[in-house]
Write a structure and sequence with these properties.
Elements (H helix, E strand, L loop, with lengths): L3 E6 L7 E5 L14 E7 H5 L6 E6 L14 E5 L9 E6 L2 E10 L2 E5 L8 E3 L5 E11 L3
Antiparallel strand pairs: 1-4, 2-3, 4-5, 5-10, 6-7, 6-10, 7-8, 8-9
Length: 142
C-alpha cells in the first residue's frame, strides 16, 4: 500500500514569479509565439490555496497511473479541501499512507486505484482510516 513517500509541509517563502505568455498555448495547429507578458505569475499563489494546510509528497508506485499520476510525481496535497466522491486522496489506512480515488457507494466507502493490477479497498468499521488530504495538483517531469 506504499504509494506516498517523503511528505513535506509547504514552508512559506517569498513569491516565486515566472514569466507567462500573454495567451494560451494552442495544443492543435501551431501559431506564432507571442511576447512574454510584463506580468508574471506567482507559482506559490497559483498552486497553494491554503498554505497552512498544504503539503507535498512524492508518489511511490504506479497504482494511480491511469489517472496520470506516476511513480516519482510530486503531489500538492491540501488538507483543507473537503473530500468528495471521485476525489483523489492521500489516506491513512491501518498505519500506512496510500493514494487512491474515493468512491462513495451504497455499501460504504471504497478506495479505488487507477490501475487494474491493484485491488479496491473497502473501508470497513474495523479499519483505522483517515482521509489525510486531497490532491490539488500533480507536478511531473516530461
Amino acid at each position: 500500500m506504499k504509494d506516498i513517500k517523503d511528505i513535506q509541509p509547504i514552508v512559506p517563502v517569498e513569491p516565486l514569479v515566472v514569466s507567462v505568455l500573454d495567451e494560451a498555448v494552442p495544443a492543435g495547429f501551431p501559431s506564432p509565439a507571442q511576447d512574454f507578458s510584463n506580468e508574471g505569475i506567482d507559482l506559490n499563489r497559483e498552486l497553494i490555496k491554503h498554505p497552512a494546510s498544504t503539503f507535498c509528497a512524492r508518489v511511490a508506485g504506479n497504482s494511480m497511473r491511469d489517472s496520470g499520476i506516476d511513480d516519482g510525481d510530486l503531489l500538492i496535497i491540501d488538507k483543507a479541501i473537503t473530500p468528495r466522491d471521485g476525489s483523489i486522496a492521500v489516506c491513512f489506512v491501518d498505519g500506512e499512507f496510500t493514494l487512491k480515488r474515493i468512491s462513495i457507494r451504497h455499501n460504504g466507502v471504497w478506495l479505488v486505484p487507477s490501475n487494474p493490477q491493484y485491488p479496491e479497498l473497502h473501508v470497513t468499521e474495523g479499519c483505522n482510516f483517515q482521509i489525510w488530504g486531497i490532491v490539488s495538483y500533480v507536478v511531473k517531469s516530461v
